[in-house]
Specification:
The complex is a heterodimer of chains A (about 110) and B (about 110). Chain A has about 110 residues and is mainly beta. Chain A has no helices and 11 strands. Chain A is globular. Classes of the chains: A mainly beta (about 110), B mainly beta (about 110). At the A-B interface, strand 4 and strand 5 of A face strand 5, strand 9 and strand 10 of B.
């Protein structure tokens, strides 16, 4: 079993829809949870970051962590065609080891 | 402009012909790493460097070498490339040792080994 599981999709939604992207993990020591967005032919870029449990909101994006269920989510409200990308979750332990454990990424297409 | 650059962006080569992919960052970052990205396998770390002259293996180091002689540069060396090293390669760097420890990725190098 992988440490981080992420449904690769693809996910196709109409413009304006609410999108829910999810990852599950097995390592209870993970404390830091990140979502990266990767456009086609580009490197990943950090979108959202959350420490421990709880929610974090940034514009149309909300990141949610449920440590009791080992489940993280990224919600996109009022999705736009420009949100079409692959979304990767990543997480790591506390401490100086900066090793990130990555999900495989979910491919999202927002159709006009 | 703060950025991570990689060269070349695209490379087609033959088995056994040594090659180097360069990576440079202009953000004075201490931490740099190399990843490869493959369908169904995702991003896997090859090597990383915590600072000048400090490097360590990631998850898939076999067949690769790195060096960190200067803070800004972190080249990836394939001494004898093989077809199973055909992949999309990313260099990344980050500054802070504490989270979120944002990693900035380069644009990628698509390598094909025939």
């Amino acid at each position: 079993q992988k440490e981080v599981e992420q449904d690769p999709g693809p996910l196709s939604v109409p413009e304006g829809a609410i999108v829910s992207l999810n990852c599950t993990y097995s390592n209870s020591a993970f404390q830091y949870f990140m979502w990266y967005r990767q456009y086609s032919r580009k490197g990943p870029e950090l979108l959202m970051y959350t420490y421990s449990s709880g929610n974090k909101e940034d514009g149309r994006f909300t990141a949610q962590v449920d440590k009791s269920s080992k489940y993280i989510s990224l919600f996109i409200r009022d999705s736009q065609p420009s949100d079409s990308a692959t979304y990767l979750c990543a997480m790591r332990n506390a401490g100086n080891n900066r090793k990130l454990i990555w999900g495989l990424g979910t491919s999202l297409a927002v159709n006009p | 402009e703060a950025q991570v650059t990689q060269n070349p962006r695209y490379l087609i080569t033959v088995t056994g012909k040594k090659l180097t992919v360069t990576c440079s960052q202009n953000m004075n970052h201490e931490y740099m790493s190399w990843y490869r990205q493959d369908p169904g396998l995702g991003l896997r770390q090859i090597y990383y460097s915590m600072n000048v002259e400090v490097t360590d293996k990631g998850d898939v180091p076999e067949g690769y070498k790195v060096s960190r002689k200067e803070k800004r540069n972190f080249p990836l060396i394939l001494e004898s490339p093989s077809p199973n090293q055909t992949s999309l390669y990313f260099c990344a760097s980050s500054l802070s040792p504490t989270p979120p420890d944002t990693q900035y990725f380069g644009p990628g190098t698509r390598l094909t080994v025939l």
